[in-house]
Amino acid sequence: NKFPDIIKSIPMISTNNVLVAGHIATLGEHLEEIPAVCPSCGYKNDVEIDLLTLEVPFLSEETFESKVFSVDLDKGYIPSVKAQTDAGLSSSYNRMTFRLPVLQDLLVLEDNFVESRDIDEFFEALMGQCIIKLESESGEELPENFLKMRKKQLLSSLSPRDWKKARKYYNKNVPELSVSSTSSCGECGGKIEYNMEQNFLFQ
Q1: What is the pLDDT of residues 9-68, one digit of tens each?
Q2: What is the dihedral of CA 172, 177, 181, 187, to 10 degrees?
Q3: Which residue, 75, 93, 114, 153, could crosslink 134 as a Cys pair with Cβ 3.0–4.6 Å?
Q4: Which of 49, 53, 203, 69 is nearest to 133 (CA)?
Q5: Rounded Cα distance, 91 and 146, in Å
Q6: How many CB atoms are closer than 10 A to CB 140?
């Protein structure tokens, strides 16, 4: 791909800042006819949003670089007997450490996602891209070259319980991409709070 490295390294959580700034610079400061249902009376509103007042999540470079998180699994990743014997690997690696995703991760996975359209498969692949370390109970790390070659298979090889645990922990620690906004109901005047999808910016 032809994206500059500085673009590829943008944290996914910060893409909203780029998209909002892009809309303001090219299409203006307002979004019109955004659908929003009032939680009080159920009235379906078409609201106008001032992009300059949006609460857009922001992650500083310093915070992003230090943001890694680990999850302790039950069974963990179990290498084949051959790999344990030939490469001297441990019998299991129970601690999995992730980093936050960047745009480069999406670019790497773009073709696969476009072809499959399977969001669960894509999410699993994205998590795999973000694994930076696997450790055994004794603290031995899975060799980096081995980890790099098997990233795509690591998560799918976990037990259902471990996979659910890893995904839940990953979701908990990765910031949301949503953009929040508020408005008033045109029918009852009540307050409407909702999350905007990124595609609202370029409808």
Answers
A1: 777 767 777 777 777 888 888 888 778 889 999 999 888 888 887 766 665 555 566 678
A2: -90
A3: 93
A4: 69
A5: 14
A6: 13
DSSP letter assigned to residue 55 = B
pLDDT band with cut points at 50, 70 and 90 for residue 170: confident
Pick the closest to residue 16 from 57, 69, 71 (CA basis): 57
Mean pLDDT rounded to a whole number for the chain? 80
CB count in 10 Å sphere of residue 2: 4
Which residue carries 């203006």 as its tokens? 28
Beta carbons of 98 and 132 less than 8 angstroms apart: yes
Type of residue found at 57: P
Contacts of 52 (CB under 8 A, 6+ apart): 24, 29
Give the Cα separation of 130 and 133 in Å (integer).
9
Residue type, 136: S
Query: CB-side exposure of 85: number of CA atoms within 13 Å?
Result: 3
Question: Model-level pTM?
Answer: 0.66
Are the C-beta atoms of residues 112 and 62 closer than 8 Å to each other?
no
| Higher pLDDT pick, 162 / 108 | 162
For residue 82, pLDDT beyond 80: yes
Report how far residue 171's alpha carbon sits from residue 181's, in angstroms, rounded to the nearest whole number. Answer: 22
